[in-house]
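Major tropism determinant N-terminal domain-containing protein
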Amino acid sequence: MAISKVIYGDQILIDLTSDTVSEASLLTGVTAHGANGELITGSCGYDVNSQDATAQTAEILSGKTAYARGSMLTGTMPNRGGVNGSIAAKSEEYTIPQGYHDGSGKVGISASEQAKIIPTNIRSGIQILGVTGTMESSSNVTAQAKSVTPSTQQQVILPDSGYDYLSQVTVNAISYVESQNSAGGTTVTIAG
């Protein structure tokens, strides 16, 4: 017979009669005495009340599990690891993809653009991305004047190798020739 209350003289030494512990409220494997004095072993499989948890599946790494609000959640957040990117234009932006990043990724100016950021390409006294320019006045710059003939195809006119820019582009007139043809009419030849 189990004892749930012990009184010694006028003094109560132990009183389990109003205790509310039960197998379901005691963690699995933990033992205690119930209100009736009998030994009980816990059967509760959780160690926290997760009702006030705020985690969502998108905030938990994909494939990992956690408990919140009394349920097991399986994560959906993608593991991006080390994400790398580069920027090749002044106005270009790199959008960081949603998900977990391990901190090893980097974003920087592309190597081809870095090669252009040299002192001789920057006007003297101007600093761009930590590189101070050494290019002096226009005496170090070579301009080219070009003439082009219209064409039926689009043309991109650029300075030749060894020139820094075009100072002038002259577009020649389109040739227009009228001649008599064998039918007695006039043939107009417009050449591009």
